[in-house]
Structures are given as structure tokens and as C-alpha cells.
Amino acid sequence: MTERQQETEAPPLLETRDLTVEFPNPAGGWTPVVQQVSFTVGQGESVALVGESGSGKTVTSLAVMGLTGVMGGRVAGGSVHFDGRELTALPEREWRGLRGPGMGMIFQQPIRSLNPAFTVGDQIAESVRRHLGFNRKAARTRAIEMLDLVQIPRAAERVDDYPHAFSGGMCQRVMIAMVMACNPRLLIADEPTTALDVTVQERILQLLRELQEQTGVSLLFVSHDLAVVAELCQKVIVMYAGEVAEQGTAADIFLRPRHPYTSGLLAAIPKPGLRSDRRLEAIPGSIPAPGSWPAGCRFHDRCPHREPGRCDSRHPDLTPAGPANEARCLRTSEIELQGVTVA
Ligand SMILES: Nc1ncnc2c1ncn2[C@@H]1O[C@H](COP(=O)(O)OP(=O)(O)OP(=O)(O)O)[C@@H](O)[C@H]1O
């Protein structure tokens, strides 16, 4: 067996199967906000979870981290396997050993995730002391090493600075240092560059790429921005109204999307680096709220390719479409959708 075959056949690090998450509704019941979401993240792979605001990306990634309950929701169905273990019924005390050395998460507003009352060094050190049992001195050394790894200049001095002394981009580096200090196998990054200037954004993406090369960490990258995803991810999962609309290799999704929603997202994003012959156009309408998902295809009322009487009555399954994609569209084999070229 070749090395490549072995790689392909290795079990994924993360696998969600039919994951369904619900939140309480004002009527006293539960409303699904994420429904039957299945995807995998392989060892060392970088996978993007994309879609407009409200599509269910954050809820999905927080469910992977076992944080649904903290938000007041519940996993109502499906499974999450991480490194061979099923996590949805894992007791909280076992989660504590898994978050940190198993998986870590960074967010859009790093400054909010850091405690303003402690130096960044103390916060990184605390994380490795708690999760890896380092003593005080070793933890401080690790904190400096990590600040150095995320390319914060003069790491040995800056380790004693408080978060307010760092810019937004530098705070995000500190957060990455804190999470990576425990050597996680999976890094979940939820819109980590959205709040940053374009040039800073570029540098953070570059850093994530380098960290992946150096450490082999797997990446689940949550973003509404397909252009950013194009630079970083091998696989793309497109979410719409709480479910997967399309998933496949990034190359295939960008060049030849199989779901009109993906094609719409590609057309709506102006970025150098992505070339399209089409005029920029936003997808008309807005994403329906959980509990108000329309019958049939959930995207049908915004879709330029909808067929009345069909798309508004039958809910499509996710079915193979193209060499490496799956799409949830009844008309996928009948329509020609335009993609973009990644420069
Ligand atoms: N704690 C909560 N209680 C009730 N509903 C929630 C809660 N958190 C999220 N939701 C709902 O779940 C749906 C999906 O939200 P989610 O944050 O996952 O979307 P998203 O795609 O990550 O969007 P964004 O990019 O804006 O974060 C939304 O309709 C949201 O209102």
C-alpha cells in the first residue's frame, strides 16, 4: 500500500454524523438550529465551514467542543467522534481532559477571550499548568516559546504584558499561542480574522498555515468569507439554514459549485485572488430563521434556478454531485453553475 493510500484510509480525526442541535423556543418546546450535519476532518487536514450569518456554523463547532449545554441548547441527535471516541454523551469531567490537549478553539474577538487582569504569559502558563501539569517555571518557559512561535517580537519581554498592550492582530496571536501551547490535535478557528484589517488578516492566515505545517494540527476553520477559505482549506462544507448544502474539495467547490447557494456565495464576494467573469451580486433575500425554514429546499425562495412545484415541495437529500462533491439540490445535474478561479 502506498503512503498516499494509507493517508486516505486513515480514520478521520473528527467525524460528525447526523448532528442535530436544538435550542428552547418561547412556546416551551425545542427548535432545531442545526440538523443532521455530517462531515469529517482528517489528521492534519484543514476544513472550512462556510455560510452566511445564522447558517449554523458556530453552533456546529461549539457542539464539537461539547459546549452546546453552556449556550442553553442540547444535542438532540447524531454523533461526534473524535479520535475514535464518541463525545456527545461524554461526562463534563472527561471533557476537561479533552479540551486543551485534544482540541482548542479561537474566536473572532480575541480580546474578549483574554482576561484583562492577568498578563498574557500568566494566561498561557495557566493553560499548560492545568492541562499538561507543567510546573510554574516550565510553564513560563513554554509561554515564551509559544509567543515566539506565533511570531510576537521580543517574546521574553512581552510575556509580562497585559492584553490591553496588544493590538487586535497581536491579541489573536496570543490566543493562538494559548490554544497551541497544549499541543491540540484539532484547532477550531471561528471567524478568527473577521474583526481584523485586511493586512493583519493575511498575516494571521499565514501564521495558521505555518503552524499547521510545523505541528500537523488539524484545522476546522469557520468563516463566511470564501476568499479567505480558498487560501487555507482543502475541504469546504457549505451550510445553509442549519444543514449542509454542499461539501467537497475546495478545488472542486470553487471551480465548479454544484449548489446554487455556493455559486451565489462565490459571486457575492469581492476579493483579489479570486477571479470571476460575473458581476458582483449579493444573494437576494435573507437566510430563514430556525423554526421558519420553508418546505422543500430551504434555499428555494432565494434560488434563481428553482422549479416551482418541485423545489418548494421536496426536501432534497445530500447526494453525490461531481467527482468529489455532495450537494443538496434537486436540480444539480440539470443546471450549469459558474465558479471562480483561485489565482
Ligand atoms: N444560544 C442560542 N439560543 C437560541 N438560538 C441560538 C443560540 N445560539 C445560536 N442560535 C441560533 O442558531 C442559528 C445558528 O447560529 P450560528 O451562530 O451557529 O450561525 P453562524 O452561521 O455561526 O452565524 P454567525 O457567523 O453570525 O455566527 C441562528 O439562527 C441563531 O440565532
Automatic annotation (TrEMBL):
It comes from the Bacteria. Keywords: ATP-binding, Cell membrane, Membrane, Nucleotide-binding, Transport. It is found in: Cell membrane. This is ABC transporter ATP-binding protein. It comes from Microtetraspora glauca. Gene3D superfamilies: P-loop containing nucleotide triphosphate hydrolases. GO terms for molecular function: ATP binding. NCBIfam families: oligo_HPY (TIGR01727). Belongs to the ABC transporter superfamily. SUPFAM superfamilies: P-loop containing nucleoside triphosphate hydrolases. Pfam families: ABC_tran, oligo_HPY. Residues 14-266 form the ABC transporter domain. InterPro entries: AAA+_ATPase (IPR003593), ABC_Ni/Peptide_Import (IPR050388), ABC_transporter-like_ATP-bd (IPR003439), ABC_transporter-like_CS (IPR017871), Oligopep_ABC_C (IPR013563), P-loop_NTPase (IPR027417). It is a peripheral membrane protein.
